[in-house]
Amino acid sequence: MSSIEFRKDLFADERDDNLNEIGKPKLRQDIEGHVRGRTAYYDDHLFDGLLHMRCVRSPHHHARVRSIDSAGAERMAGVRRVVRASDVPHNINTLLSLIGFGRDDEQLIADRKVAYKGEPVLAIIAETEAQARAACAAVRVDWEVLPHVLDVEEALTPGAPVVNEEYPNNCFDYAPYDHVKLRFGDVEAGFAQADRIVEATYEMSPIEQAPIETCGAIAAPETSGRYVCHTGTQALFFSLGTTAKLLDMPSSKLHFIGGTVGGGFGGKVDSLTEPMAVLGAVLTGKPVKFQWDREEEMQVGAPRGAERWIIKDGVMADGRIVARQFTGFFDAGAYTRLSSYAGTKGTGHLPGPYSIPNVASNVFCVYTNRTPATAMRGFGITGVDFAIECHMDRVAEAVGADPIHLRILNAYRDGDMKAHRRRAKNCALVECCQVAAGKAGWRVSPEDMAASSKTGTTADRQAIPETALDEDGRIGDRKAGRMPSARPAKGTKRLPAGTHGRDHKAVPVQRPDMQQLAERVGHRVAPERDAAPAASPTVPARAPDTPTPATAPSRPTAAPPATSSPPAEARPAAAPPQPMPQLQPAQPKPYEPDTPFRQGVRRPGVSRFLSGSRRR
Amino acid sequence: MAQTPVRFTLNGRETGLFVEEAANLLDVLRRGAGDISPKYGCGQGTCGACTVLIDGAPHLGCLTLAATVEGREVRTTGGMADGPGLTALQTAFMEGFAAQCGFCTPGMLMAAKALLDRNPQPTRDEVIEAISGNLCRCTGYEPIVDAILAASGQRGAA
Prior knowledge:
The complex is a heterodimer of chains A (616) and B (158).
Chain A: H1 3-10, H2 31-36, E1 51-57, E2 63-69, H3 71-74, E3 79-83, E4 113-114, E5 120-126, H4 129-138, E6 140-145, H5 152-155, E7 180-184, H6 187-193, E8 196-204, E9 216-221, E10 227-231, H7 236-246, E11 254-257, H8 273-284, E12 288-291, H9 294-299, E13 307-315, E14 321-333, H10 339-348, E15 359-367, H11 382-399, H12 403-410, H13 429-440, H14 446-450, H15 459-462, E16 467-469, E17 493-495
Parallel strand pairs in A: 1-12, 10-11, 14-15
Antiparallel strand pairs in A: 1-5, 2-4, 2-6, 3-5, 7-15, 8-13, 9-10, 9-12, 13-14, 16-17
Helix pairs in contact in A: 7-8
Chain B: E1 3-10, E2 13-20, H1 25-32, E3 51-54, E4 57-60, E5 73-75, H2 88-95, H3 105-118, H4 124-130, H5 142-151
Parallel strand pairs in B: 1-5
Antiparallel strand pairs in B: 1-2, 3-4, 3-5
Helix pairs in contact in B: 2-5
């Protein structure tokens, strides 16, 4: 039976649509090119007079560059150009600066210090790849080797070497804390009430995506004054924006061609090869290829980052988990790349698909002298899911419960309140457990077979409990030795039950024509009202209502009742959708900007293409 | 660097090129002869993406000195189908979803063709053995093995 049939069987009343494509054989639109050997990957675009670029890379985990002697290499046969850090016009970036997240912390070519093995300090462009390789081998770098740190918890100790000078505390700043906090209920009270405490540590090593096509790009000057760049990137416009920023070049001068990727799995979003190839084309006026060989792909290519999770559960004798505490470490390697996002995404996944009344987690994005980590297939989720499910088995063993029973007992039911103060909906773990047990021939009790994700929620499971809050782990405290433990601290303040905590408000739209009608995009909008019961010191008072009530959809649909039992129906029917004042779509008018179009941000002394947080 | 003339047939056509002494067949086919179907995946003989047939036997283009194909017959995936039609093996790969990113496919097809030319009715184990030098990171191999068996007229053979 296919999974679609399972869905129709188990959730027959949910969707009556007959799927036209899913579950049915269909030819890929690009597959004929694949079997004919005609699909053109970036390296399949042939250029006359193509030059080849290769990098001189650090053999050390952590070292200062005293000097670089490339005189011998420059005189070697076929060498056309030596590319130094000073040739990069705006030699500092962080990948997520394009969406305003994090500070610039990484150079395209390092000039003073390297923080991981394989970091480039110089590049050489030559007529053949072999000549470029030989010239790189002839470059003499005078290294001052520095002490390095390769373990996340070691990196957080006060005496640890500073890996990344932009983040001297060796961890990403999730202002105002040095970690992502999640607090729901009071785990200490939960542990006190529990019959058993089960604690364990789980680790996952870095994993290289290892696509068969290595990362690379070919750039060439076009006759229009632009530079064309053929690339195997997974993120064409990320790569374009990153190139524009690093080379301080308007993006209109860049013609990026991509979309045909010889395997990526997350490893081709880092946009490291495109700026190098375009820089080479700018400096030589010739087509330049910058292609990693297999060794670079494995050593320098950013893997899925290592993770370490410490999970502590408080469990009742009957298998109900009443408290769960996480301490998580994402190993970012030397630079941020996408690991800061892994921290928030991983936190968003806690405590797994289970209704647990008391949850606390501290998640760190830590810098070490390892290869910078980046995206890979569900990064931020895979490691913690592995940890949670291993831990569920351990908890089952500790209380003598069947592991499938333990999961069905604790699984989210539709309508439950998650630790993120959102309602669980469209839950299916109970059904997954039933089907998996059936397939594996695992005996499941009749009560568990009769369980459903659609029933079983209670007033308690729907309520937001009183929550213990703490202010521990402000940025810099750890480096100063004021923070002995990474674990969630005992709460010092209380957030009243039924409160959502910080109240997020949609930013008012800047132009009326950007106003999205919530109903048109399918959001049900609850009437504006106060979510929090009057004054609580930690809940900022709501600003006066903006004149745009239709922007509310990013808020939870309705404040859940604090104590009183809600109606029996599992679907959060919330308040009946009130008719919103209908904003008539404006009559189409010709586009008339009141300010002339400008690219990027104008700030004195910085690149116009710098976006996001400005470097200090 | 010294250049040597080398003559061979590429997909049935007489081809003559000047190659550098140390040049490998993969570079010469791609840059010299303009046949982009063999791919560079590792340059170390590990991944099999550059697999071509030399006199009917599978060889790794990246580890073959171009000068050694003098007078021999080289076949690549680029020359598999002559005209608009496809071979049974190519059709089986298409219909069996045996390619996702497609980067290993040209090498995979050459390894499979070498097997089927030699042994038209292979067992599943023989298919697995024949493609054991070709790495694929997308499919998990099962659809590829199934497609090769399907092309040999043994759809669903165990």
